[in-house]
Amino acid sequence: MTDRISIIKQMYLSLTDKERLDFLSYLKDSKEDNNELKSFNSIKELILKHNHTNLNDRPSCPHCRSLIMVKNGHKDGNQRYKCKDCHKTFAITNNTILFSTKKSITVWQKFCECLLNKFSLRKCALICKINLHTAFNWRHKILDALQNMQSEVKLNGVIQSDETYFPLSFKGHHKHFILPRSSRKRGHSSTVRGLSKELVCVPCTVNLNGLSVGVISNLGKPNVFNLEKALNHKFESGSILVTDSFKAYQKIAFENDLTHIRIHKGKHSNGSFNIQTVNSYHTGLKRMIEHNFRGVATKYLMTFPHI
Predict the structure, then answer these.
(1) Strand pairing partners for 70?
(2) How many angstroms separate the CA atoms of 265 and 287, rounded?
(3) Residue 109 lies in a domain
(4) What is the signed CA dihedral for 182, 187, 191, 196, rounded to 10 degrees?
(5) Structural domain includes residue 306
(6) Which of 103, 141, 285 minimizes the C-alpha distance to 205?
(7) What are 251-298's pLDDT values in tens digits?
(8) What are phi and psi of 135, to 5 degrees?
(9) DSSP code, position 148
(10) Total domain count for the chain?
(11) Is 108 helix (H, G, I), strand (E, B) or coil?
């Protein structure tokens, strides 16, 4: 420890006067931020601080976005409000993953760590000491929130786009449901060869800065309309779109004012451009869905954020 302090002192002495002032100012700001974070002792203060610069400010109504409201008592230790425009009541946790939760923020943090480590639901429930059904609902609450965040992503720079496919899955359907195809064991391939209606198409788009967009578009091979619905308005004008030879991307590039680079069939690159980043993204996505989560029903696949 003494050696480390000695090295830090030497580095500090080597700085100019201006650099020393900037460094001391940075340490002061960091300390204030940490003290401010520690001063929060409730979830409501954290959420309110995130949305407002002053804790005395009140949140906007989640139903009509009005700012005209009055306090309306407390429930479970949380302040409730009543909107004077739509006359509905709400708390600051409305429309958040913490809405109607009965567990502390510590349990939620632990569950998020389990989710990042891609643990199974049973393992998550065991570690967090919650019910398996609660773990299932929490996972989808978090994934829905991430999906909503993804819908606001705008890609720029060099962007790679390609499609990947998942077998159509009816996992979890047991009662009062007629399977539209013959059943098969998990992990087996579809009964029809090629890009049939038994495969779910997921167009994925990533840029070299790590931002990504991936949504379900259709069953089987996509057409221009499917790609327009999934990808339009996801790009910043003037960016470069790199794709394979699928012609539908030409219209996507034209409508979004993009420079289109096509990788011709049988080739792996076009000059210095390739689509290896998005292909690697496909591999990671499939590993998460098929290996870590043991497959998910198609109705839930659309809620998974592809990041």
Answers:
(1) 82
(2) 26
(3) yes
(4) 110
(5) no
(6) 285
(7) 999 999 999 999 988 888 888 889 999 999 898 888 888 777 777 777
(8) -60, -40
(9) H
(10) 3
(11) helix
Please give the residue range of the domain that contains residue 76: 38-98
CATH number (domain holding residue 257): 3.30.420.10
H helix runs in 151-264, sequence order: 224-231, 248-255
- 167 — phi, psi (to 5°)? -60, 140
Same domain assignment for residues 223 and 259: yes
The answer to whether residues 160 and 275 touch, using CB atoms and an 8 Å cutoff, is: yes
One domain for residues 89 and 108: no
Q: pLDDT, tens digit, for every residue of 158-187?
A: 999 999 998 887 777 666 667 766 666 665
Q: What is the pLDDT of residues 50-71, one digit of tens each?
A: 444 344 456 778 888 888 888 8
Same domain, 202 and 267: yes
Rounded Cα–Cα distance for residues 282 and 121 (Å):
23
Contact of 248 with 222, CB cutoff 8 Å: yes
Tokens coding 261: 């680079």
Query: What is the pLDDT of the chain when averaged over all its residues?
Result: 77
Residues 140 and 237 in one domain: no
Nearest one of 124, 123, 97 to 111, comparing CA atoms: 124
**Cα distance between residue 60 and residue 4, in whole Å:** 49
0.90 surpassed by pTM: no
Residue 12 contacts residue 23 (beta carbons within 8 Å): yes
SS3 for 159? strand
Q: Are residues 158 and 284 in the same domain?
A: yes
Q: Are residues 208 and 277 in the same domain?
A: yes
